[in-house]
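To close the chapter, one final illustration. This time we ask the reader to focus less on the individual chains and more on the assembly as a whole: which components sit near each other, and how the overall shape emerges from the parts.
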Amino acid sequence: MRITRINTNIGEIDQQKVDLSSIDSLIEKYKNKKGNMIPILQGVQEIYGYIPKDAFLKVSKETQLELSDMYGVATFYAQFRLKPAGKHVVKVCHGTACHVQNAKELTVALQDSLKVSDGETTDDGLFTLESVACLGCCSLAPVLMIGDETYGKLNGDKAIKIVRDIKRQESN
Amino acid sequence: MENTKIIVGLGSCGIAAGAKKVYDKFLSIQESGNLSFDLQKTSCIGMCYREPLVEVIDSNGSYMYGEIDENKASEIIEEHILKNTPIVDYVVKADTFKTDDNAFIDDQVKITLRNCGYIDPENIDEYEARDGYRAIKKIAGHQVSRLDVIQTIIDSGLRGRGGGGFPTGLKWKFANNNKAQEKYIICNADEGDPGAFMDRSVLEGDPHSVLEGMIIGAYAIEATGGVIYCRAEYPLAIVRLQIAIEQARKKGYLGNNILGIHGFNFDIYIKEGAGAFVCGEETALIASIEGERGMPRKRPPFPAASGLWKQPTNINNVETLANIPWIIINGAAEYAKYGTDRSKGTKVFALVGKIARSGLAEVPMGMSIRDVIFKIGGGIQNNKKFKAVQMGGPSGGCIPEHLLDTIVDYDSVNATGAIMGSGGMVVMDEDTCMINVAKFFLDFTEKESCGKCTFCRIGTKRMLEILTRITEGKGKEGDIEKLEELSYQIKDSSLCGLGQTAPNPVLTTIKYFRHEYEAHIHDKRCPAKVCTSLLTFEIIPDKCTGCTICAVKCPTDAIDGARKEVHFIREEDCIQCGTCFAKCRFDAIKVF
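The assembled structure is written out below.
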């Protein structure tokens, strides 16, 4: 079931302090509009990269959206994060076509290279490794996506090289 | 030379294959100023297996070049543009001669994809130049009544391309019958079916055709608002839709009193999906637009009576809508000319998996699956043997070799136990384990089940546990029967399509590949050598060079041997992870 995706201990959701004033205009824009909950949560995530606990509280206070409803929605959809993500989110496609073309090899290779499990972020905060359902580039399977960039026809070694190249650019 | 055009295919697939670099290369040559040619962009051309694709149109016609990189781009400039001699070796399609790739193209009929690969999707003028917005102009100019528009769509026999196959015209009629101040038309662009990407291609390659389809639908049912519910995983599609909506507003195709039709006020906005497969279901999609968890609601009331914000709502899929303008311009009879008795027109299939020519193919309904896979798709990669084709994604099933002559129409595909679905065809060869495939889909539906219905929520979990245990060699007597029993219970007791169809991949694999299940359960053997727990790994002494890579990579240190000497796997410590097999560069690991 979708809710089982939550593997976060709520207590440790986030210790980071965030600047809550950044979401003022967002709240202003969507306040009192019907169907505003998902756009607000998407907006908050756009700003912080995840949805901090304090942002939940602030949005709830200022828009009268129920905290429990918001948490329900945020944990239902795959898009929302409750923990900070790495600077680059590596989305390894596990759609059918990628599965048949051995997408597992990419995940295993990246887990090995980045020293994280699926869904985790590296210690340096650079990468989050994720498995996702179809990215719609099935003819180039297996593929992965970093930011808006899609990489196709990969194998374990090529996947590692992409991540290493980004790491090298970051350190320059 | 003035009029030579170079067109680069910049769909998501093309860009992933390196088309952006090729485009930039041409751009830098153009900007260097020594040569004059027009450089243009288009989107997916459908021949994904040849990406990146570059089309050169000169006075002799069109030449489509495949698998172009920056070096080949320079060659095209040198030979074709400067010396006027096309590089025949790189050509995949041309006006003046045939290539091997014509097999992919010749039997296709492009209606949905009529503009994909021909126009710059970010330029409304190019859409208009190819009959774009002529359908809605025809309706406005001839004052075609709403009911006549609906009747045309009914007569065309167009059925919902998202998978359900419900007649589109009837759906419009129901929505038209329900009178209300506010009404909505929604485009379902939440293409969540893994292995299908035709909606993405249409949205990226021809967004205006979808908008025009929605505008015509809005006119027919008297909708006041339009929403496109698009997956957030398709960033390029969203950008191009935004551009298209902006352009359509400027030209007066969206707004108030559209094209002079008094009182026809309609606008469209995009709602980004947040990632949930169940939102492909109509009522769940509506709940999601309303900002709630995407959980299906009980029907009736159907959305046509009470949908978004409790107003009459009509939901159509991207591919369905893209057909509408064509039908209005060319007439219902012209569309119904293609297809079978009960499935008219054409259908776009995404050919993927172990197929030689993967890509998007639009064929008339009624073609055999064999022709689609072997004639158009070129058969199986690397001369392997065909095993099955999976149609309909997680709601569909696996069709075996002896049913390859099944024709593609809704009813014939349903009869096999699979479904047409959105049109994904994932081809599997002899190296694919069918239990592993069934497990893959159950893993997907188990995660995506919204949790509302007990049988779907818990039943899929139990089924997944049984499948997992079978693939690990712990399958028990009676497991197959247990899977069947659970399947029927889940089908009978789920509210929405997700649950009702979730067991299909398991049922069809049991039906057609029961011997594989039995081999796993009784003989503890995986015939396709995929389920590693059931395999034994051994090093072939003659081939081992003693490079030590297997010993280094083995997670349980189960491999002994000195450098440059033959290595051995200690069976008692081996966990059958397959790492040594994957890492060995000398094919020295035997699996059985």
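Helices of chain A lie at 24-30, 37-48, 53-63, 67-76, 96-100, 103-114, 156-171. The radius of gyration of chain A is 18 Å. With these observations in hand, you are ready for the problems at the end of the chapter.
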